[in-house]
């Protein structure tokens, strides 16, 4: 059932996903092709906010922080998986893998490589602050609009 808390949590995590994507873009070489990287992460953020944070809103301030962190971690993990799986499909079409297991392992290798790009103070700070704000916004909206 749609609620205002789900909507606002989804919007907050979508903005966070887009903003962090733009920060990551500035840390990468200029020749990197991103395509719809930021938009995909915004959609993932909206879904994580709607399904994870928004559905758990209304349980108190400490739970709000935990919900924000849970949603943000889910956003990061799903984004890593989706972008790694996309790279695996591209590499598979280029016949860079000989077996299915190599392709599956390619997903995890790419995810580890992408996760190393997240080890930046600006990215980590943005994720932490965004998680807290998302949790609190969902909590406040849940209390005011039932």
Q: Roughly what fraction of the amino acids lie in strands? A: under 5%
Fraction of helical residues: over 70%
- The ordered H/E elements are HHHHH
Q: What Rg is obtained from the alpha carbons, in whole angstroms?
A: 17 Å
Write down the overall geometry.
elongated
Average pLDDT for all residues: 93
Tell me the number of helical segments per DSSP (H or I, 4 or more residues long): 5
Count of beta strands = 0
The secondary structure category is mainly alpha
- End-to-end CA span: 12 Å
Instruction: Describe the sheet with the most strands.
Output: none
Structure commentary:
The chain has helices at 4-27, 37-53, 61-93, 100-117, 121-144. It has one domain. It is elongated, with a radius of gyration of 17 Å. The chain has 146 residues and is mainly alpha-helical. It is 79% helix and 0% strand. It contains five helices and no strands.
Brief summary:
The chain has 146 residues and is an all-alpha fold.
Question: Which SSEs are present, and which pair or pack?
Answer:
Blueprint: H1 4-27, H2 37-53, H3 61-93, H4 100-117, H5 121-144
């Amino acid at each position: 059932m749609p609620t205002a808390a789900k909507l606002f949590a989804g919007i907050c995590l979508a903005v966070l996903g887009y903003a962090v994507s733009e920060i990551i873009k500035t840390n990468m070489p200029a020749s990197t092709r991103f395509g719809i990287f930021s938009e995909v992460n915004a959609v993932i953020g909206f879904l994580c906010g709607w399904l994870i944070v928004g559905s758990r809103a209304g349980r108190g301030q400490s739970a709000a922080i935990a919900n924000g962190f849970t949603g943000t971690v889910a956003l990061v993990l799903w984004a890593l998986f989706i972008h790694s799986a996309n790279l695996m499909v591209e590499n598979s079409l280029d016949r860079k893998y000989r077996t299915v297991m190599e392709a599956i392992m390619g997903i995890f290798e790419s995810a580890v490589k992408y996760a190393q790009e997240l080890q930046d103070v600006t990215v980590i700070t943005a994720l932490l602050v965004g998680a807290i704000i998302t949790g609190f916004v969902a909590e406040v909206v849940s209390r005011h609009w039932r």
